[in-house]
Amino acid sequence: MENLHSAAQSWSYRVPSPPRLLVPPPPTDRRGAPNLRIENSSNYKFESSGFSNTEFLSTVTYGDTITGNIMHEWKYENRWTAQRILPFLFLGPVTAARSRDFLQQNGITMVLAVRDMKSAHARLLGSKAAQELNIPYSTVDTAGNQELIAAFPRGIEIINAHLSAMYQQSQNSSSPDKASAPGKVLVFCETGNERSAAMVAAYIMAMYSMDVIKAIQIIQAQRFAVAFDDPMRLLLQNYDGILSARRDVLRSVRQESDHQPSSGLSPPFSAQGGMGMFRKPSKRTLDDAYDDDMDLEGDGGLGEEARREGRGGAAPFLDEGRL
Fold first, then answer.
1. Which of these, 178, 87, 103, lies nearest to 137 by C-alpha position?
2. Phi/psi at 308 (5° precision)
3. Measured distance CA(111)–CA(191) in Å, rounded
4. Is the dihedral of CA 197, 99, 207, 264 positive or negative?
5. Distance between CA 200 and CA 189 in Å, rounded?
6. What distances in angstroms separate CA 20 from CA 189, 229, 230, 231, 249, one per listed residue?
7. Which residues touch 176 (CB under 8 Å, ≥6 apart)?
8. C-alpha 57: how far from its chain's center?
9. Distance between terminal CA atoms of the chain?
10. Which segments of the chain does DSSP mark as H helices, in order?
């Protein structure tokens, strides 16, 4: 019997893998210069790391929250120092954290090491220069790069907590030099190109509501040596999805609270730059769960064709008899 079916796609014997996330060159303006400016966006008014982003960043940085990053000429020796990604956030290797001159010249007020457990146990990423200058030293330790997605919120909170503390300190200071001096954080790892770069990308995505491609482009414009391999890009893309889901939930909660009459209760989250208190939704009852199970067993009152309508996908085989 003649076989009238053929494969719709070419066969492959490799292990299935997720599609690659390609980062194209940044768009250019009318002059041909890369357009990498971080713009104000109404999207990041919703909390994504425990802070009300717009008000918090504008307050603790005295309005210096946006950077007009432009791509500059990259030299090989630049990989051994740190670059400014945001007005208050630097990215670089451990050599920058150990450089007394760099810390003083750039006004660094905290260093944050993103380490794996082996480096943490061996105490390889210390900063004697920061200790001598009385600069706070914080760490985020993970067992591997895959655990970074769980460590991103902790790192973001460490950075924001320091910025908030520096703002309170400057407000209570009688010195005119420190009255408007925002905090500046150096995020580093061994090379400044992998874990620490991912942490800075996650910060931009969370606090500025940037997608993963734009965040990587902004970082690469200042530190060309960063290495976002496919697994790291996929991890950041998954974190972007988590942030989007959290913003959708908080947006719906805010809309729901706006339509409800005021009862004197506290809002679901604070807009004063402090840690927000999220209101937990009520649990489903047994009847709700039973009704959901009944809907899954039947077709919900819809016919078979109606349920299949709108479904995408491609057939694995082609019927050559109809070609």
1. 103
2. -85, -15
3. 15
4. positive
5. 11
6. 25, 10, 7, 9, 28
7. none
8. 15
9. 19
10. 53-60, 94-97, 100-105, 117-122, 128-132, 148-172, 195-208, 212-222, 230-259, 286-297, 304-308
Structure tokens belonging to residue 293: 């199970």
User: Cα–Cα distance between 158 and 279 in angstroms, integer?
Assistant: 23
What are the tens digits of pLDDT across the range 256-266? 877 766 544 43
Task: Spell out the residues 6+ positions from residue 205 whose beta carbon is closer than 8 angstroms to its own.
Answer: 211, 212, 215, 236, 239, 240, 243
Q: How many CB atoms neighbour CB 145 within 10 A?
A: 16
Residue environment code for 184-223, b if the CB has 16+ CB neighbours within 10 A, otherwise e: bbbbbbbbbbbbbbbbbbbbbbbbbbbebbbbbbbbbbbb
User: Is the pTM of the predicted complex or chain greater than 0.85?
Assistant: no
In one letter, which amino acid is 264? Answer: G
- Strand partners of residue 5: 319
Distance between CA 239 and CA 208 in Å, rounded? 14
Reported as a single tens digit per residue, the pLDDT across 123-139 is 777 888 999 999 999 99
Beta bridge partners of 305: none
